[in-house]
Amino acid sequence: MTVRSATYDGTWTQVMDTPIDQRVCDCCPTTAAVTSDGPIVAFRNRTEDEVRDIFVSRLEGGRWTEPASVHDDGWKLAACPVNGPMLSARGRQVVLAWFTAVGDVGHAYVAFSHDAGRSFGRPIRVDDFASQGRVDVELLPDGAAAVSWIELATPRAGFMVRRVERGGSRSAAVRVATLEGSRASGYPRLARDGTSLVFAWTDTAAPDSIVRTAVAALVSR
């Protein structure tokens, strides 16, 4: 399985189709964002030895850079976890959220970049106990990030969100909704709309599994 890029002109005629990475995780979603230096993509790489860590590539001068690891998690797995990364960018500021389960214990992390994704700081753990991943992330106006994930808990998992500072400090986690701790819960989503955060998730406890939404106001700090 490969990650590829296509470019179209103003008439929607395809003018380029090029590979970014020739060997990646089969089912993990990819993510892309646009920085002031150009587009950046993130995805779960797959080595010959089945190490499945998160890599990024940037479009520079019309060419995609050699994919580079965000952090050497060393997660070796002979299967696809169906758990991709998420990006958010503004100017040259980038934040990346991802899931890994080294040692069969799942955790969610974020890392910040100040140079449009050329390098990333140390990973900051997001979950409190254990995570099922399914992360999302949004940069906030002051440079911090709002990060969401599925926290594994008893008796039911939770769609959680918290604020993470670039220096590593974290706010208390807030439960947006209670979820099933399984793939049936899908990928809860987070987006920023001005001074509000908008959440969307699948309620599998409802008849026919409906999508629910919620809105929370951002508090200035």
Can you describe this structure in just a few lines?
The protein has about 220 residues and is mainly β. Helices cover about 0% and strands about 50% of the residues.
Structural class: mainly beta
Here the CATH topology equals Neuraminidase
Q: State mean pLDDT (0 to 100 scale).
A: 94
N-to-C series of helices and strands: EEEEEEEEEEEEEEEEEE
Q: Give the strand content.
A: over 45%
User: Low-confidence parts lasting 5 or more residues at pLDDT below 50?
Assistant: none
Q: What's the quaternary structure here?
A: single chain
CATH class: Mainly Beta
Overall radius of gyration? 17 Å
Q: What's the architecture, going by CATH? A: 6 Propeller
Please tally the helical runs, counting DSSP H or I stretches of 4 or more residues: 0
